[in-house]
Design brief:
five-stranded parallel beta sheet
């Protein structure tokens, strides 16, 4: 890109990370603040299954609506929904919210929008003590759309493919243990780097496996 010019394409912001990493809370709030259409894998998965988003389905990892087949359908629907909204001239950004734990799923996003939008992944993370506390709160909340539990978290932790393949300009990382207004400010600053065509710090990825 020529110096001094910014990329005028639309933007896909993908909030990714482990269960209870704070990605959905942050993604929904950021999308609302910036007027971006927002798509969440938990909601879409249950819509595909024909059930209410808040209906609990405590399946084992990889079973039922969390099977590989359902997961594929869910992420397919996320891409279709994002493509449809981006066709609207009034829409400048779309937010996707899901684990995006496999390199293959992340690559599909990048390939789908490589000619139509800038793509940036925001990896949300927190300490395991915070994860446990959030899962406990979620279990007691009848309005929660997630079926995440501690044993599911542990299974996901073993299977999670960390985003080492992402170029620095498409990767941001944020510790979500903090007040929402502070996190939104931090996120805006990180994404301003993207809007200016600047890459993130290559050291951001250090410690991803801790």
């Amino acid at each position: 890109m020529p110096k001094g010019k910014t990329d005028s394409r639309k933007r896909i912001v993908v909030f990714m990370g482990m269960i209870a990493s704070g990605k959905s809370y942050l993604a929904g709030a950021w999308a609302g603040r910036h007027g971006c259409p927002y798509f969440n894998t938990d909601v879409i998965r249950k819509t595909l299954a024909g059930i209410d988003a808040t209906e609990s389905r405590p399946e084992e990892a990889g079973q039922g609506i969390y099977s590989a087949e359902y997961t594929r359908r869910t992420y397919d629907a996320m891409l279709v929904s994002a493509e449809e909204r981006l066709r609207d001239p009034a829409v400048s950004c779309v937010v996707l919210d899901g684990s995006y734990q496999s390199e293959a799923e992340r690559d599909r996003v990048r390939r789908t929008f490589e000619k139509t939008a800038r793509v940036v992944f925001v990896m949300c993370s927190c300490k395991e003590t915070v994860t446990k506390a959030r899962l406990a709160e979620r279990a007691a909340d009848p309005a929660s759309v997630s079926d995440g539990r501690w044993e599911i978290y542990l299974a996901q932790k073993d299977a999670f493919e960390f985003p080492e393949e992402l170029p620095v300009e498409q990767f941001r990382r944020l510790d979500t243990d903090g007040p929402l207004d502070v996190l939104l400010g931090q996120l805006d600053a990180l994404l301003q780097q993207d809007a200016a065509g600047c890459g993130g710090d290559k050291t951001e990825r250090k410690g991803l496996r801790t």
